[in-house]
Amino acid sequence: MTRHKTTRSTATRSGPRQRAAFRSSMVLAIKFAKQHFNAVTMKAFSKQLSIALVVVAGAAATSVAQSSANALRAEFLQVLDRPRVPLSPTTPRVVTEGAYTEELLAYFAERDERVPMLIVERAGQSERAPVVIVLHGTGGSKEGTRGQLRRLADNGFVAVAIDARFHGERATPIPGLANSYQSAMLRAFRTGVGHPYLYDTVWDVMRLIDYLATRPDVDAARIGVVGNSKGGTEAYLAAAADPRIAVVVPWIGVQSFGWALQHPSGWEARVWTLRQAVEAAAADSQVSVNAAFVRKFFQRIAPGLVDTFDGPAMLPLIAPRPMLVVNGDSDPRSPLGGVRACVSAAERAYATLGAGDRFRFLLEVDAAHEVTSEAQAATLDWLTRWLSPSKRP
After folding, report:
1. CB contact at 8 A, 204 and 109
2. Who's near 296: CB < 8 A, 6+ residues apart?
């Protein structure tokens, strides 16, 4: 895989010039009106002009926001991009168990990356239906999501899960450390090649959507993604990168990595899940594990994650598509300060686009790094509301 380089986004400069020109034209209009209108007419004109100002200013703000979002998305896609290969899906192994039909098959995300997947539907499903992709957390696998996939199938969805990079069937040994996922991150730190933390799986999700769009049982206009923990971060990054994702629900994975690096309790808990790779990389560098080194580590294995592509920058790219963010109020790995930084940025973006009802933040009470039954029920309601499946008896 080629080495990628990131640069800072260059925000569009047309916005300020457009606003200045608009203000000048309004000044001229008011001057003309004062010269030619009587008092009554002038009052009515002023009222209509005020309304027009609000409308045009809102449209200008929306245009600037969308231009900035498109520029940042393009920059992120440049980091993710790699040579495309044919998907070459394998012949599925189909098993019917009770009310469910399961398919096990695989596709190629890139030349040497075969992605195993599990698809669950209600037996007898024939019409096109919305699809929900479920992304597991660290140490998980597609099989570990089977219960969730079946609940989604019960509610009229085609439900899909994949093994993330270096998980499940893809957890093949890599020299360096005993755990292949940790070893892959250490290798990326040492070589600068590959993005095993989050980004590579985001690419796999985008290629999965390419495959799903070819299936006769999937409505490609109604694609949702739900992710847990690591999968939650991958879910919002994938939705930010790929507008084909119509709805996204990140569970306990939304975070500002930049915020966390300024708070020891934030980065220490996050690094705990990556500690083998981080500690080995620090030993290579002959330094201790501190915030400065963790920043360097993240920048090496996932360029831009702590700044350019941090949560507060990426969540706004999803607006106005529906998004439900779920987090515990006592989650050490996704601390509330970092979550709120992301949520605040998202709320502003949705408000700018007049889509406030399409964003919701569900804060689980007395919950750590976990997904409560209330959050699971809210997720199903959210997906049903925005993807409109046909429920089956």
Report:
1. yes
2. 285
**At the topology level of CATH, where does 93-387 sit?**
Rossmann fold (3.40.50)
Q: What angle do CA 218, 225, 240 make, to 5 degrees?
A: 115
Domain boundaries, the chain: 14-80, 93-387
Query: How far is it, in rounded angstroms, from Cα 103 to Cα 291?
Result: 44
Which pTM does this prediction carry? 0.85
* Token couple for 252: 């306990």
The runs of H, that is alpha helices, within the chain are 14-36, 39-80, 146-154, 180-191, 199-212, 230-241, 257-261, 264-272, 275-285, 291-301, 311-314, 336-352, 373-387
Rounded CA separation 135/226 (Å):
6
Is the separation of the CB atoms in 204 and 113 below 8 Å? yes
Question: Under a CB-based contact definition with an 8 Å cutoff, are residues 318 and 353 in contact?
Answer: no
Tell me the DSSP string of 200-233. HHHHHHHHHHHHHTT-TTEEEEEEEEEEETHHHH
Start-to-end CA span in the chain (Å): 48
Burial of 76 (0-12, 13-18, 19+ CB in 10 A): buried
pLDDT, tens only, 190-244: 999 999 999 999 999 999 999 999 999 999 999 999 999 999 999 999 999 999 9
Contact indicator for 107, 203 with CB cutoff of 8 Å: no
Say how far apart CA 23 and CA 219 lie, in whole Å: 46
**Contact 334/269 with Cβ under 8 angstroms?**
no
157 vs 380: CA distance, rounded Å: 10
Residues 199 and 224: beta-carbon distance below 8 Å: no
Distance CA 230, CA 198 (A): 7
Cα distances from 36 to residues 23, 33, 96, in angstroms, run 20, 5, 80
Structure tokens at 372: 């409560």
- The model's pLDDT over 133-144, given as tens digits with 9 standing for 90+, comes to 999 999 999 999
- The three-class DSSP label of residue 134 is strand
With beta carbons less than 8 A apart as the criterion, state whether 259 and 333 touch: no
CB 142 within 8 A of CB 133: no
Retrieve residue 311's tokens. Answer: 């949560």
Which residue, 91, 157, 160, is CA-closest to 122?
157
